[in-house]
Structure formats: structure tokens, C-alpha cells
From TrEMBL:
PANTHER family: HYDROXYPYRUVATE ISOMERASE (PTHR12110)
Keywords: Isomerase
InterPro entries registered for this protein in UniProt: AP_endonuc_F2_Zn_BS, IolE/XylAMocC-like, Xyl_isomerase-like_sf, Xyl_isomerase-like_TIM-brl
Transmembrane segments: none
The keyword NADP is assigned to this record: no
Domain Xylose isomerase-like TIM barrel per the UniProt entry, residue ranges: 60-232
Name of protein: Sugar phosphate isomerase/epimerase
Amino acid sequence: MRFRHPDGSTVHLAYCTNVHPAETLDGVLAQLRDHCEPVRRRLGRDRLGIGLWLARDAAHALVTDRSALRGLRTELEQRGLEVVTLNGFPYEGFGAEEVKYRVYQPDWADSERLAHTTDLARVLAQLLPDDVAEGSISTLPLAWRTAYDQERATAAHTALTTLAERLDALHELTGRSLRIGLEPEPGCTVETTRDALAPLTAVGHDRIGICVDTCHLATSFEDPHTALDALAQARVPIVKSQLSAALHAEHPHLPEVRAALAAFDEPRFLHQTRTLTAAGLRGTDDLGEALAGDALPDASPWRAHFHVPLHAAPAAPLTSTLPVLRAALTRLVGGPHPLTHHLEVETYTWQALPPELRPRARAQLTDGIAAELTLARDLLTDLGLKELP
């Protein structure tokens, strides 16, 4: 979906396909047929933006077989789909029964991460629509915080510098300008936007910036305006923003709140949980740890890294951080000029919701994704953007 900003530029809105498990190119093609095109039809649009997640094997197949890449582009065009952004955070296995810490491997100190992201850039340069010259890729925020010493930090910095050089060369070769955004996430070396300032300033290249995920922003209790102003002051480019909402518990000391939170403690994904105390941010790596005993202070609200559907807040006594998303979006695209032109709805946890909230059929998932995109569209038009055909 495309929108015209009052300044005349185009803002792209997509939904991320990491909600649909697929490790191979055949799986990606099935996603387009079974999910993406039905969402477009449900919205009544001639064109729908999708943020493709390409696992390692799918990406490798595309860069080693030019006919396969042409075939994917043709498939996208025939189904009324367009790609201007990729989700390069998960490397593989994102649809596994247990993902947890595995999603952070390989990290930016490992050569596989650079090779995979280079593959993604080469693919995206060929998938961009003819009238779009800029693409974006979100990626792991360097590494999970443990076992990340100075030696690995140096290796990660070198890898990002190499990537920037490769993106420059790709621009010269194809005329397509691609940028990579580190995506701050709780528990990682780069947990907050503030944490991103030093490494991104050190790399010092405008092709390497940040991806602002509004669920992660909220989970770490960052104020959107303060965070985004600091990025602007440091001249760190906001490559893209993922529109998502975290789980919020206002009174975590109450037994009924604990019981409601426990329903979201599931085995597939890591749900880092945070609270803001007088002494600063406190947290656990997973929701179950927070619920066990006194691992986390409960005098102040808790937020958990659980991407809840944007249009459907959890039932009381829980809620979502949709107000944080609204505030961030206002700052991102509500001003005289957009701070980013790429927006992506990223709710990948539909099948990790409590059983009674999960879609029971493919059509229900289609309806849910379409409802999220409708909400995002309404937020954008309320800010003065005009939806384009």
C-alpha cells in the first residue's frame, strides 16, 4: 500500500510475511498464493506491499538461480504484490516449534550473517518495482548480549562496514539504493535506540541505520519522541519502522493479572519482560521467568515482548501498547517530512496467542491481517497522508 505524504513523497506500508512459516522458495511462493494475495483481495486493493522474510535457503536459491528470481518477480506482479523491504532478522527456523534464543544466530560477528544479508540485498535490488529506487532490510541488532566481547564487537563492526561497501557497489551496478536497519530488541547488545547510537556512529555510513520496532520501543519503556529526536540529532537514518504492539500489564502484582499474563507464556518465542523502576529498567529474558516468584519487581507496570494484533487489544486486565505505536507514527510521518518511508506491520505471533484467540482457519488469519492493515491505513490518513491506488 502506498501513501502520498503532504510533502509529495511516497510512504510505503507492508505486512511482514514472517507470520507464515517458509524455509524454501517453494514455501515462499505458496505464501504468496495462500496468504498474501487473499489479504490483498480482502482489502479490495489492486496492490499490496509485503515485507518478505526469506530464510537462508530461499535467499540462496534466488541469488544462485536468476530464472528463479525472475520467476518470483513475475509471481509478485501477477498477484498484485510489491516488495520494497525485507525482514532479514531471522536467519532460518522461524516457524519451528521452539525458536527462543535461536533467532539471534548467527550474529553479526559470524560470517554467515554478512553473507546472508548480502544475498538479501542482491535479491531486493531485483524485486523492487520499476518506479521504486530505494529498498530497506531490517536485521539483528548485532548480537544477543551474552558472549559478546570486544573481539566479537570488532568483527561485527568490520562486517557492517563491508556490507556498506557492498551496498555502494550494488547501487553503482543496479541503480537501486539499499539500506540496512539494525532493529533494537530487549536482551540484545543493542536493546534500545540509545544503544544503537554508538555502533552506528562508529560505522558512519548512511546505508547502515536503524529499524524502529514500536513493540520493542514500548517494551523497553522508551518515549517515542525522545528516542526519535535523539536519532535525528545523531543523524542516524531510520531505515524502516515496524508497526507492532507489546503486551502491557498495569498492575502485575494482582493475582488475576498474573493469571492473564500466564496465558501468553508459550514455548515458541522469547517474550522478554521489562518494568521501569526508580533505579532504572529491570527485566527478564522471558515471561515465564518474570511470573516465577519475585524475579521482577511488580510495583510498576510490566511490558512483555509479545507482538499482539494491532486491532484487537488483549482482554482486561491486560492491554497493549498501541498508544506508543500511535505516538511513534505521529513523529515518524506526521511532520513536514517523513523520518522514514518504509512501514511494516509485523505481528508474527498469531499462532502463539492463547488458544482461544488463535485463527482457526486460513480465512480468519487473512481477516486478522487485513484488519491490522486497515487500522494502520486509518492512522496514516488521520495524519494527513493520502492513500494511493
